[in-house]
Amino acid sequence: MVSSPHEAMHRIFQDHPDLFSRVSEVLGVDFPPPTSFTILPNDLTETSPVERRVDTLVRLETQDDEPLLLAVEAQGAKDPDKPASWAYYATHLLTKYRLQPMLLVVCQDRATAEWAARTVTFGPAKWPLITLRPMVAGPHNMPVITDPTEVRKDLALATLAAVTHAKSPDIGAILKAMTNVLRDTPADLANPIIEYVARGMGKHAAAEIWRKLVAVDLSFYKSYIFEEIRDEARAQRAAEDILDVLEVRGIDVPEAVRERITSCDDPEILRRWHRRAVIAPSAEQIFTDE
């Protein structure tokens, strides 16, 4: 299922590594634009049994001949253990690659973003050993882009901005501007963007807005999310048909049975239940042998 804002907040940097230069510009930090990039393995596990993985790791070559090692982390909530993990990532990456690391944390709510942006020190208060200072992109500093012209200027940045504003009251206008542009965008570029936004909306109310916009404005795209929307609609109609049969037959449908029917998304199971609903003496007995 397409339901992970975490994935959307960092994986877009794997498809668009140059996005960091525009994000840093939005955040008011001047980094030279990359001239090339390399996606690196995100596994930071050592020989010890503790597994550690940064979300996305990119090496960016720059015009200044000073490569940047960019770690991107998606953060959904405050986590008191994360600063220590981030400090570990930074020191491990420095040791492994001999390049100065950068950490970009992407958030969807202001409180988490402000928490992540704090400068954290490790070591005695009188003599800190390590200072952690992440860059943070979130709804407090990413642009609210509701003009299709602005979306068209930088589709990757507009996508990340939309994901960070998933809870914003302006999200309807933001997503509408996205579909206005995606309608005229080549499918090989548009389809991944459609799915990034879908993942980014997660279980927020904006997810339903996006699904409807995709179904109406972008119905000609045969993307993963479009197929998922179509399959879900079919499952919903099949579930309604089962409930209609039971209602016409005057059979009581307990809430637990109704919930099981409406939450099922397997077409074959729904067809089997529909056939049984025609003859079953009770609603529960449509589940016989399940």
Automatic annotation (TrEMBL):
Source taxon at top rank: Bacteria
The protein's name: Transposase (putative) YhgA-like domain-containing protein
Natural source organism: Streptomyces regalis
Lineage, broadest ranks: Bacteria, Bacillati, Actinomycetota, Actinomycetes, Kitasatosporales
